[in-house]
Design goal:
With about 1050 residues, this protein is α+β, with helices and mostly antiparallel strands. Among the domains are: about 160 residues, YVTN repeat-like/Quinoprotein amine dehydrogenase (Methylamine Dehydrogenase, Chain H), CATH 2.130.10.10; about 120 residues, 7 Propeller (Methylamine Dehydrogenase, Chain H); about 100 residues; about 110 residues, Immunoglobulin-like, CATH 2.60.40; about 100 residues, Beta-Lactamase, CATH 3.30.450.20; about 100 residues, no CATH class. It is built from seven helices and 70 strands. The strands form 18 sheets. It has a five-stranded mixed β-sheet with strand order 57-63-62-59-60, with no helix packed on it. The protein is flat and about 190 Å long. About 0% of the residues have low confidence.
Length: about 1050
Amino acid sequence: YIWFATQYGLNKFDGYSFEKYYFDPVDTNSLSNNWIFNITEDHGGALWIATKKGLNKFDKKTGQFRQVIYKSNNSGVNDDFVYGLTTDGIYLYISAPPILSILNIETETFETFKNNFEYDGAVHDIGSPIIKDNNGSIWIGSIEGLYKFSPGTKEFTGFEYNETGINSISHRHITALYEDALGNILIGTENGLNIYSKQNKKITQYSHDPNNSNSLNHNFIRSIIQDHTGAYWIGYEGGGLNKMTINNQTGQTSFKHFGGGTDQNFISHDFVNTLMEDKSKNLWIGTTAGIDKVNLKRGKFRSYKKSADPNSIDLLDNIIASVYEDKDGNLWIGNWGKGLNILNRNTNQVKYYSSSYSGKTHLPNNHVHVLFEDSKSRIWLGTRNGLSIYNKQSGAFIPAHEYFGAESFNQFENNRVYCIIEDYKGEFWIGTANGIFILIPEINGIKNITVNSENPMNISSNLVYSILEDKEKNVWIATTNGLDCYIPSKNKIIHYVNDPESANSLCHNFSISLCEDKKGLIWIGTSTGVSSYNKEKQVFTNYSIKNGLPSNIIYDIIKDNNNNLWFSTGGGLAIFNSQTKAFKAYTIEDGLQGMEFNIKAVFKADDGEMFFGGVEGLISFYPDSLEDNKYIPPIVITSFEKERDDEKQKMNVYSDLIELSYKDYSFTIKFSALDYTNPSRNQYAYKMEGILDKWIHLDNQRFVHFTNLPSGSYTFFVKGTNSDGIWNDSVTSLNIIINPPWWKSNPAYIFYLILILLLIFAIIKLRERNMVNEKKVLEKKVLERTTEIKLQKNKIEESEEKLRSTIRSMDDLVFVLDEKGIFLEFNNPGKRDTVYKNPKIFLNKHFEDVGFPEAIVQQLKQAYLQLQQIDQVIKLDYSLERKKKTYWFNAKISSRRNLDGDLKGITIVSRDITERKLAEELLKEQKDKLDELNATKDKFFSIFAHDLKNPFASLHSLSNLLKDNYESAEEEDKIMIIERISSSTKHIFSLLESLLTWSRSQSGLIEYTPVKLDVSQLISINLNLNQVFAEKKGIKLISSAKGKTNAFGDQEMI
């Protein structure tokens, strides 16, 4: 921690917040007074505090103050006023001139010494600095002079002031003391600085010279320190701060002044009371107006800006729009609206150009957006009002159309130019607010590519901020409406835009900057992050503040000589680590001139120097010279706050153990990495053994909250980094015990155990007594039960014998099998010899081994499986072949189970159904024959009805014909009709006679008598029967029978 002593109490600072300690009249463990003059720490870590009301000791472990009282004696020791303190670890030296008191820290006993060199011996409330040098001597300053006390001899040595100044201190009033790294004593007075060399016993004086800027800024010195570089810092009463550097080789001294209220102001007030450098190499400056902090580590960045300091480089303005270093080493710096600066870095002289100037230093426009030097060493200048070329001979800027003598180039007038590149063919691609212009100066050629150009040579937007030619000679174009790529081999432009549905598309269409890395990836800076494009995979990878970028606005991207990518953003500078895919940010704390940068205000010189411009000026640096903060800070627990019943209470964090009640259901632990360089960038991780053994990373959050933890023992671990992300391998731990409620405490559990043991003992005794009684009752019951079991056994044996007899006497086959399928019992029915030669082959054999057909074996296996699951009766039919004869059986399979319901076997009752099966087969055969006869009869009647229909139809037609035409018909026709009627009736009679004959044949009364028949004659008869009917319907009947056609059949049946 850093402890600050003030007139209003003691303050402890952990890098983030202050904890204050005050005098409390009702608290005896508080400070004795709020006005604190000095503070020091002994080897045990206790703080000793010098106040207006005595000496105080602060015990960090208890968090309490205690006033150390020592009595006045003849030596005149003052109990109240204590000013100067210093310690060697064993003794505390207390300065209250003219008295020096020495306190034994362990025994807290005092020894006092009076300085007889003091003039009046009075105690002065004016301050008295005191230090211990590397030889163990104590140096004391007072209003009357400088004194050295030797602890060995207990003697004072005085250093008197004389007005001649020869080997004398410059004033007797000593206001500050300090021993430097060489052992010299620096003595501050109200009239300058003195350096006493213990080696040659000489004093060198330094004082303020109004006519010499390289002198002390003021004579009244209040504080002195030497920093880690060897430079001295001197604080004044009303004179601000000096940095004094002494060249040990030449002895030459230089001074740099820092004060309040000046252009170079970086301290809050000119009255500097105290100075201190911490372990992180930060300078702390205590002034009348407060505290200031300065990072003394080597500056990472060189700054160029507008300045009123005659010794500094002065630019026209701090808003930088462009930067370029030419081949002569001159630095060209374009301002946004103020013109151009050309800095000769050898002489630090700046040449200015502006639109308000006339002659050679006149600019066409003060908004210098881009500076570019081509392969012919011509300097191109792009402004808000067109394109100009620098004429080295005249030192003036000439508009492009005048320089090249090409009127077509005057298209750039009133056109904003943002970027210029020269491609591999020597053609110039110029990005403007009105599209891209391709210039070929040798032939005065110019081509304009815009949104409205003919596809595929149109661009996504006319506002072009950046153009890049990659290693494959493709030209990439960053516009405000997407990314474009010109492919020379295809003479076409490809467009890339953001796709909200795809994570592998361009992160945003508003593209600002372009860069190609070592691997050939194209990096695109946009208004919402950065994308890298893999040309082989044709995918974009996107990065944002979630990945460590300080801002999502990417103004420019540039590659350094180590192939690392640097990003200028709206929130600082960042470098990308291609191995870890992580960004490291640089901020004002690292030396940046500001956090906001500008588009195209970047440049990398041939020697690797990088330039970045923003709204607060220009910075430059060599990436290899950037050093990380190597200080590894200790991690301390700063606060432990518990909560109970909505009331919060702080616990002492200096203790190694925090003990809580179960009622403390919630607590918060705060911690800090004591690196004060940039505390907001310190990172933290913690774990709580007893809950979770893995590290939880918190980024820069420095507290963790726990709620409703169960009672038990826990160990809290925390670790952290410095401002550059370097982790401290040494972790800080805190043991935490949450005590359970009394009913869950160890004494309670012991009581419960004793109670349970007594209960068990009582139960055992009661059980023993009951067991004796139960034994007697049990013996009686056993005897009765034994008798009962014997009777039951006899009955069971009788029942089993009866069952066997019943089984043997049954006509059905009965098989009894155990749970494994082994035959236990088999009856001996009367018909068994017709099926089995020797039934005894079944006994004690498995059903798979007795010759059953495979089908029956499978059915038995299935039956076992079914009966394992549910108790049921399974029915099945099966057949067996014996003596070339088939026997049929109907079987019923049932389970046999024990009292627990487990399957103990099966019983198969198989009945011979062979006779029934044969009867069923005979009945089926007869049924099939009957069905066949019925089908034949149906078919016959269908044919007969059809045959009978024709003569009847003929008879009906002829009779109607005769009736209707009887009067008008010729006699011959009447005779013909009558003959045909007669023929039909004969045919009908013949058919009826045939039906009766068939009926007798079905009854077995007539036999089938086939004879030789004339088929032609039968056809002719049937034609004549149907002739009239057919003619009526317009049908002509023709017989194709030729001559006699014989057949063999029963004429009557036909």
